[in-house]
Amino acid sequence: MTELEIIGLPISTYVRAVRIAAQEKGVAYTLHPASPHSEPVNRISPAGRIPVMRHGGVELAESRAIAGYIDAVFDGPDLFPRDPVEAAKAEQWISLTNTVFDPLFIRRFLFAYIFPKGENGEPDRAVIDKAAEEMRPYFKAIDAALAETGYFAGKAPSFADWNLFTMMHYLRQMPESGEMLNASPNLLALHDRLAARESAEATLPPPPQEAASA
Ligand SMILES: N[C@@H](CCC(=O)N[C@@H](CS)C(=O)NCC(=O)O)C(=O)O
Predict the structure, then answer these.
(1) Per-state percent for the chain, helix, strand, coil, to nearest 5
(2) What is the CATH topology of the domain spanning 84-204?
(3) CA distance 151 to 51
(4) CA of residue 48 to ligand 1 center, whole Å
(5) CB within 10 Å: which end of the chain, N or C, has fewer?
(6) Does the reported pTM lie above 0.85?
(7) From the alpha carbon of 102, which atom of ligand 1 is closest?
């Protein structure tokens, strides 16, 4: 059988999301650790970003494309809803997560903690406080969206949920975002349900501080 190869670092939220997608689908894969902009990554991703994937002659970049491929090509539980409205909802939250939440929650807020740029190598409080303030309404909107079924789309976990889950894993470990998560009962319940699944446990990343040396 043709091997599914996922290329990227286990600490990356996007790499973890596609590893979880493969595992939830019941597909065995080999993880080849490689940094962003390294040669094996650049060969597949025009942006040099992780993850990238190889399956026989198929090479793909971008987590949404990789998860969609895995869902379409292999048997197993659906990673994306089939109902058109639920499918559109899933896409909406994937897009928001990748284009709005990631730049704010991860690149501005979390990175201010793990790559500190303040005085004496301390995290820059002004950056953290400003980002945290901007994050609060998004946590409220996410929590409200999960109120009906507990998931972004339909009544079962989809890639939209996993995509945000991998970010929440890190955010729950930081004071302000941990407090926001604890004040968001539906999001916290989703996080805890997903964290208990085998796919989440099998892909548990190293502590965020290790990203600094990755
Ligand atoms: N849109 C990409 C984002 C992937 C991404 O940003 N990965 C990060 C690691 S978590 C990366 O490679 N960063 C390097 C960079 O931004 O240059 C996807 O969905 O796969």
Answers:
(1) 60, 5, 35
(2) Glutathione S-transferase Yfyf (Class Pi); Chain A, domain 2 (1.20.1050)
(3) 24
(4) 8
(5) N
(6) yes
(7) 6
